[in-house]
Amino acid sequence: MKLTRILPASCMLLSLMIPQALLAQKPTGSESPSYYNIGGVLSNNESESHFATVIAHLNFDQQYVPRGTTYYDKTIRIDKNPIKTALNVCKHLISRRVYAVVVSHEPTGDLSPAAVSYTSGFYQIPVIGISSREAAFSDKNIHVSFLRTVPPYYHQADVWLEILSHFGYTKVIIIHSSDTDGRAVLGRFQTTSQTNYDDIDVRATVESIVEFEPKLDSFSSYLMDMKTAQSRVYLLYASQEDAYVIFRDAAIHNMTEYGHIWIVTEQALSANNTPTGIIGLKLNNAENETDHIKDAIYILASAIKEMTVNETITEAPKDCDDSGVIWESGKRLFGYLKTRNIRGETGQVAFDDNGDRMYAEYDVINVHENHSFVKVGSFHYDSEKRKMRLKINDSSITWPGNTGKKPEGIMIPTHLKVLTIEEKPFVYARKLLDDEIDCADDEVVCPHFNITNGNEQEYCCKGYCIDLLKALAQRINFTYDLALSPDGQFGHYQLKNHTTGIGTTVKKEWNGLIGELVAERADLIVAPLTINPERAEFIEFSKPFKYQGITILEKKPSRSSTLVSFLQPFSNTLWILVMVSVHVVALVLYLLDRFSPFGRFKLSTTDGTEEDALNLSSAIWFAWGVLLNSGIGEGTPRSFSARVLGMVWAGFAMIIVASYTANLAAFLVLERPKTKLTGINDARLRNTMENLTCATVKGSSVDMYFRRQVELSNMYRTMEANNYDTAEQAIQDVKDGKLMAFIWDSSRLEYEASKDCELVTAGELFGRSGYGVGLQKGSPWTDAVTLAILDFHESGFMESLDKEWIFHGNVQQCEQFEKTPNTLGLKNMAGVFILVGAGIVGGIGLIIIEVVYKKHQIKKQKKMEIARHAADKWRGTIEKRKTLRASLAMQRQYNVGLNSVSKSVQSQNAEKSRYPILPPLPRTPERAWPKDKEYIVNRKNNSSGAGKPPPRYMPTYATDVSHLIV
Question: What pTM, to 2 d.p., does this model score?
């Protein structure tokens, strides 16, 4: 005890013995100084005495002071007048070449430490504050060389966040004064919350911010607005005087009773009327100026020691007269000071980039009955993990209302505003007609407020999500008002211009359902809302009530049923070969049967009933009959070689007909049109062609999915220009053939495909996700809604909703229809009927040609008959004339008598030469004549009886003169 009293006196005596010449000596060459003057601007004599004692002890501490180095103290008393303080710094400190200044705090004024900082900082002389905690000292544009061993007031926001995380409070209301420190507390809270708390489930969010002007008279108007908020956790930063007014009015409005939680800073905790249950903070060693002096001096010595090792320290400025002198070594020394991290009297001492104290330790104080302050926890430095830790004894806490039960921290409303959006089959929206008063029993009133024109229209809603909302309301006991999305969108980021004092800035804001929830204009979203990371960052999601993904909807390709569909089983080349084969085989059969010895001639033993040899017409008829399996039994080959070929041809025909029949069934009966696309990895989608258009809905979760996927960027750029405002428009365009592929949620597209069998989904699901109920951040209903949905899954309620709304009762039975074979209709077999009709028409045409040809032949035969009759008559006339002449000649001969034989013979020879004997006519039907037989008999008789006279009349035949008849 005596030693501690003697040391300060001896140190002061030693300082007096140092000659003034030594103080004025300068270091030679490039070496650092051998002595350092440390200035002090302190608040009382005790601090000044302790300052000198610490420096005296420092000179004997070889860990911080190397051999040959000495520290001296130069102190002045701080003045509440900042101008006097600044003048004293120039006159008594800077003139003594101080290398750093340690400044305390005047209890009655806040500006004196700032004056020391301004003056010293102008020459880059480091200043170490040991009691100044205002936020203004963190601004390095003003206090360029200021750092402090005490934390600023706004660092208490870090402890607030740890306390909130410990108790599980995620929604708070911040109340702060509208001064620099109050705004700094708010900024620190929001920044630290987003930076250090990645888990959104435990991150504290600010529901409301109440900013008030200092020197309050009443706080009641602010409290009335706070009552309508959900949060019941209040974080208060206020001075002692303002805190008194706030606590007074809060007690009047019963906002200090059970269910309300107040967490306050040191200044507010010192109010005289702090209610029971308040939790506050108190900085350890906040008023222990002597410990802070020692920590400041040892930190300075540590920095100077390291700096002398690495570089040379130049002399400090000697006066304030030369305004152009900037001490570069002082600037670098300040950098060394900020890197210090030592264990001091006030705990672990370290600094951030602003020169503010880190690792400051606090006590957590709880106000009990009779205004007693009880320490219930601490915020201290963990040397093993090298970070701050919060430790609270929950059992020793007394909460507002003088109870030990921890409040929930929120007021759970029982009447919620619920938003939805029209999206079949989840939500069907029907406009209420003029003559209708109310919706049907299975519908819910869902008005639509148009944000564009401000009109409100009444709608009635039903569907999957409406039934789910009814079940949730009944299960977890809440009432609701349902409304449609104001802008008809689910919600996405959009750029908006915001005018500030600096100028116009562009900010991203949510619109649609998400925007309403983020702006807290709604409590719940019950709609087919896809859960994705972008949305989950701003709102809460329940567990999915339906799992789904993304798929592609397209129209089924139409079957190409033409008039020649029955020819599809064979290619054109095969049909041509079959046609050629028929006629080639017929020709070969004819030739074999013609040149075979058993085909051209009949056997001698035959009875005349054996068939004739095969001619070319019969051979063609036989070949076609075998091919078409007509069962033709006549006109078959006679020769063995031709019959062998006929058997081979029959086998060929059997194979061809069987193959045709099987393929015909495959093409016309079992064939089902396939989808045009194979899925999202289809090359036609990845490299979109002009004739293939695909699209989705603007601002939807599918649109966000494509934005995130780098490998789909080329496809998205093409899609973006085609995107639709609503899914209904896109689906209708797919039905009309205007859109080739619509990419959307699988649940909706499966519903459309089950309702219309002309639509089909292509490929497998991708981008799998789920539909969830959307809630505000920190909503008290999140857990209840999630548990109810999980229970619905287990009980089968969600499955019943799927069957009722999504699959629509399977009215069309598209899946079963796909598995059954097609029924052939006139469209498929029209070509066959047309072929038969063509055969009928061809046969009628041929018979007409035959009839016309036959009539022409008959006319020609009649003309020929007439010509023959005319020729026959002419021949008869000629014969009559010849016969008459012969009769006359014979009569004359008979009358004259037989004068002589010679004359008679000559007469006969002349008669023969004049009337020669005609040869017999052929017996053909064309040459037949009724008197032929009689003429021949007369000729015989004449030849046998030479002495008889010729007949009285003998028909004479003329040569055929039909060719002369025109």
Answer: 0.56
